[in-house]
Amino acid sequence: xxxxxxxxxxxxxxxxxxADEDTIRRVFRHLAKRHHxxxxxxxxRKQFDRLVEAHATLTDPQARAAYDAKxxxxxxxxxxxxxxxxxxxxxxxxxxxxxxxxxxxxxxxRRSMRQPGIGELELARLVGVPVEHVEFHIWYLRExxxxxxxxxxxxxxxxxxxxxxxxLQRGDATKRLTxxxxxxxxxx
Length: 188
What we know:
- By secondary structure, this protein is mainly alpha-helical.
- The chain has two domains: 9-86, Helix Hairpins (Orthogonal Bundle); 89-179, Winged helix-like DNA-binding domain superfamily/Winged helix DNA-binding domain (Arc Repressor Mutant, subunit A), CATH 1.10.10.
- It is built from eight helices and two strands.
- It has helices spanning 9-12, 21-35, 45-59, 61-86, 89-111, 120-127, 132-144, 159-179; strands spanning 147-149, 155-157.
- The chain has a two-stranded antiparallel sheet with strand order 1-2.
- Helix 3 packs across helix 4 and helix 5 (89-111) packs across helix 8 (159-179).
- The longest helix has 26 residues, at 61-86.
- It is elongated, with a radius of gyration of 27 Å.
């Protein structure tokens, strides 16, 4: 069963999180009149129902305390997402993670054509992150056609994935040559 999307009752009622019960009731009455299904112009039944739910939750001390805890978790998570999006390293880290994953799939495919698959849990362990952190990368690699799900349920590199790995390796070799990181062989 899918989780219901979070509804910000404070935003819905156009209130501060510190609003007292009298303010909540006053604002609710004003908005409820406007959105009531019997209001001139037809109102908005869906919005009215949301307002009633928000009012009932925020005017019941126990329900409000439970909602406020959920509200804090939601906004903490939202700010983490915003912070991560502002961090310039996230994109670089993601590209690096996908490159490592592709390399693992490549090595597995090369070593065992009969059993080329890697499961999500094994993959997460190999790259050293929780399984939830590889889900995005798996989605991306599958969408690009670089990996596929086998009949066994495991994931394996495709021919397009081999091409991508080889392209990455050629780029790294060229970069090492132009950066001077590939010293000339020593003659002893």
